[in-house]
Amino acid sequence: MPAKRQQRRSTNAAGQKKSAPKKGPKGAPKKGVKQGSAKGKKKPAKKGPAKKTTKTAKKGPPKKGGGQQGGPKSGPKKYGGGKSTGGPKKRPSRRAAPRISDQPGERLQKLLAAAGVASRRECEEFIREGRVQVDGEVVTELGTRVDLAEQDVHVDGEPLPKPKKAYFAVHKPNGVVSTANDPSGRPRVIDLLPPSLGRLYNVGRLDMASEGLILVTNDGELANRLTHPSHGVEKIYNVQVAGLPEPDVLKQLQKGVYFAEGKAKVVRAKIKSRRKQSSVLEIVLAEGRNREIRRMLAAVGHKVQRLVRVAVGPVRLGEMPEGSYRKLTPQEVKDLKKVAGM
After folding, report:
1. Three-state DSSP class for residue 112
2. Closest CA to 139 of 150, 147, 149, 128
3. Looking at the predicted structure, is the pLDDT value of residue 262 above 50?
4. Does residue 216 belong to any structural domain of this protein?
5. For bias kind Gly residues, which ranges apply (predicted)?
6. Interacting residues of 211 by C-beta distance below 8 A, sequence separation 6+
7. 142: Cβ contacts below 8 Å, ≥ 6 apart
8. Reported confidence tier of residue 148, pLDDT bands at 50, 70, 90
9. Is residue 219 part of a domain?
10. Known catalytic membership, residue 135
11. What is the pLDDT of residue 8?
């Protein structure tokens, strides 16, 4: 019996030794190790960083488009820093507010108040609110200067009545300037007329040392035509010069004298009277360059002592006292327009 038991034990031991290699490859779980612990080791692998990285990448928006979340709203970054613009924006027209402030004329709010639109303060509010148009453009700048005789003004779509055309003759004295604005504060031709006549301007100029007839009006078209050389409106001057000009001098004036800006000549020239040391000439011009007569006579050797303009087209100075003015007659206005081609 003992011998048989010993034989069985040896047989079992041998069988166990032979079946041991059948437990599986190296690294397989041993007996006594719970399967739950093995599963617990696999779960961290499923929650590994690779999956987290993938999720983060899906949540985050692309860096293009200035950090805004994607979708059709952001659009490509073409014009506005990633914002959809629908195409390039057009620049606002620079003519939306016309630059009239540098032009001569009345301040717009003053002009509106004088026309009876409203008080000065209310007119300023109208301008700020964009209710006033000048030549079809909205003007919102206070202090804008407007010439109502030449420009169209509308308030709330209603046209502002234009002033009645006015025409005057002025006898300009020596020492008075014919410019519209004088920084030195010297007396101007326009100051010889009362402000109640409204906005007026000179037709042409005379230098400060010259005297005589200047036309003043608010009719811009007529003024331009009277001064433009193409219309050939004649101006007559009585000119006292030093010395006794010879006939050849008068012919030279009619032939022409050359200056840096071109040739200048008179239409006619004749001697009206002579004295011992001076002469009075009648000179007719159809153009009006700066100090033209003085420069021409100096070029032929005769200094001007006095210069008086006595006519512009059909209008004559006559016996008007220095510094005075008068209203042109209807016939004079008609004749002026005729020579100006109107």
Report:
1. helix
2. 128
3. yes
4. yes
5. 63-85
6. 171, 172, 173, 174, 306, 307, 308, 309, 322
7. 107, 108, 109, 124, 127, 128
8. confident
9. yes
10. no
11. 53
Domain-embedded: residue 147: yes
Structural contact between residues 127 and 138, judged by C-beta atoms closer than 8 angstroms? no
Residue 188 carries which DSSP code? B
Are 121 and 127 in contact, with CB atoms under 8 Å apart? no
Instruction: Pull the structure tokens for residue 49.
Output: 């960083």
Tokens at 210, concatenated: 């010259």
Secondary structure letter of residue 244 according to DSSP: -
Q: For the CA atoms of 115, 120, 126, 132, what is the dihedral angle to 10 degrees?
A: 40
Average confidence (pLDDT) over 309-315: 95
**Domain co-membership, 281 together with 145:** no
Question: Is 276 within a domain?
Answer: yes
- What's 28's DSSP letter? P
* Domain interval for residue 268: 234-312
Other Cβ atoms closer than 10 A to 167? 22
Terminal-to-terminal C-alpha distance of the chain: 158
What mean pLDDT do residues 304-323 have? 94
Distance (Å) of CA 320 to CA 131, 202, 263, 282: 46, 18, 34, 19
187: number of Cβ within 10 Å: 15
Q: What are the tokens at 136?
A: 């079809």
Do the Cβ atoms of 280 and 304 come closer than 8 Å? no
DSSP letters for 85-101: -SSPPPPPPGGGS---T
Q: What is the DSSP string of 61-90?
A: PPSTTTT---STTT--SSSBTTB--SSPPP
Q: Which of 102, 152, 156, 207 is catalytic?
A: 207
